[in-house]
Design goal:
Strand content: 35-45%
Low-confidence stretches: none
Structural class: mainly beta
Helix content: 10-25%
Strand order of the largest sheet: 4-9-8-5-1-2-3-10
Mean pLDDT: 91
Order of helices and strands: HEEEEEEEHEEE
Distance between the termini: 16 Å
Largest sheet: 8 strands, antiparallel
């Protein structure tokens, strides 16, 4: 199974936990078929929205998403920059895209998201090779 396959089958996943060790973050999900998956991401920039303290379990339902940063953010002199409009800046910040501001286009290529009704987790990674996963049959 590839990462693209995992993303396709993550449509009704439930976020179980997020742990970290140094620059590695482990995101544990329960998939629709009862299997679990641990996605390990190597990044120094991650935004975790306050999910674990929520008493509503529906907030944890999510899917995975990969986005190429250059397709969604503006750049100048080889670096991602915030938009000039304050409203657009606030929208991008709410989505976690502000993590890429000031980073090099040549070095940082991908945003990885765990999204539910809103963004639950966002991070910037240099390449798809920095995202690994392990499927744990249920």
């Amino acid at each position: 199974m590839t990462l693209k396959d995992l993303i396709k089958m993550s449509g009704d996943a439930e976020l179980l936990e997020v742990t970290s060790s140094g620059c590695y973050y482990n995101v544990k999900l329960s998939l629709y078929d009862g299997d679990e998956v641990v996605v390990q991401i190597m990044t120094s920039d991650m935004k975790i929205f306050d999910v674990e303290s929520s008493s509503n379990p529906l907030i944890r339902y999510c899917h995975l998403e990969l986005v190429y940063i250059s397709e969604i953010l503006s750049s100048k002199n080889g670096y991602y920059v915030p938009p000039e409009s304050f409203g657009e800046l606030m929208k991008e910040t709410k989505l976690g895209l502000n993590l890429a501001y000031g980073k090099s286009l040549n070095e940082f290529k991908i945003m990885f998201f765990v999204k539910g009704h809103e963004v639950l987790l966002a991070c910037v990674v240099k390449s798809i090779d920095q995202i690994k996963f392990e499927l744990i049959p249920g």
